[in-house]
Amino acid sequence: MKENQAETNVRRSSRLKQNSIQSYFKQEKAIPIVDKKKALKPLKEASITVKNLNTPEKVLIEIKHEKAKQHKTAKPTKPASFRRLRVNKWTKEAMALCPKPIMGTEDGPDDDCEVRKACMVECTDKSCTAGPSCGNRGLQRQEYAKYEIRSAGGKGDGFYAKEDIKAGELIIEYVGEVLTKEAAQDRLKHNTSRHVYGMGIGDGIVIDSAERGNDARFINHSCDPNAETGKWEVRGRPRVAVTARRLILSGEEVTFDYHFETEGEKVKCMCGSKKCRGYL
């Protein structure tokens, strides 16, 4: 009897991994598709429109493929192999896909800090004459808001402000391992974690914080969010900043809208806001 149960668990585990690979990214012709009949409960894919002066892009975010359990303590849950990162860790393959800088430095440094900020490009010593007084280097200096990670009830862990955060201010950067879409898909085949976190930033590049990353991975969804994501260029590389959409009071949970785009079964929303759509 025990042997039969073990065989059943192995088959279920195999089907779950195959299904995770199928729905981790938007279906494209270049990506193999697993037979839908073998799927159990597919992951859903979210998309967030990101401002870009030249061409609009989308930031895609994967959320937990299992319901988060309520934790008795305020300690965040992380995979046993999780390692904290201060900045993104790029692979050589992802670097080869890195887009060209929006604004070059051929003319030398200048004082156009506000112009670069409007273009979502941070200043550097090569592009800016302001030096230490420059106010457009938040991601590089990690000028994050004060926050804490604690239980968010039925949603699992949540990201909470520990101070008032004004509209437009940087809250935190979404940090992780930067992979190609193909590498991230292949990683899912050997995934042993209960959760999957992957953020696509365009050009076939994915920021994966499943095993390495920072606390931005704990930010939950809301249909009436108080924060948003934006794609910035920092020293020629794309990075994702989470900023406040409005005044966020101390003790308030920080959230943003995942804007789920899904085929098949819908995911029930647990945000609890008055504007809740019912489903992600």
Automatic annotation (TrEMBL):
> Domain Post-SET spans what residues?
265-280
The listed locations are: Chromosome; Nucleus
Listed Pfam families:
AWS (PF17907), SET (PF00856)
Mention one GO biological process in which this protein takes part, according to its record: methylation
Q: Name one GO cellular component term.
A: chromosome
| GO terms for MF | histone methyltransferase activity
Residue ranges of domain SET in the record:
145-259
Q: Which PROSITE patterns match?
A: POST_SET (PS50868), SET (PS50280)
Keywords in alphabetical order: Chromosome, Methyltransferase, Nucleus, S-adenosyl-L-methionine, Transferase
Q: Does the keyword Oxidoreductase apply?
A: no
Q: Does the keyword S-adenosyl-L-methionine apply?
A: yes
The protein's name is SET domain
Which organism encodes this protein? Carpediemonas membranifera
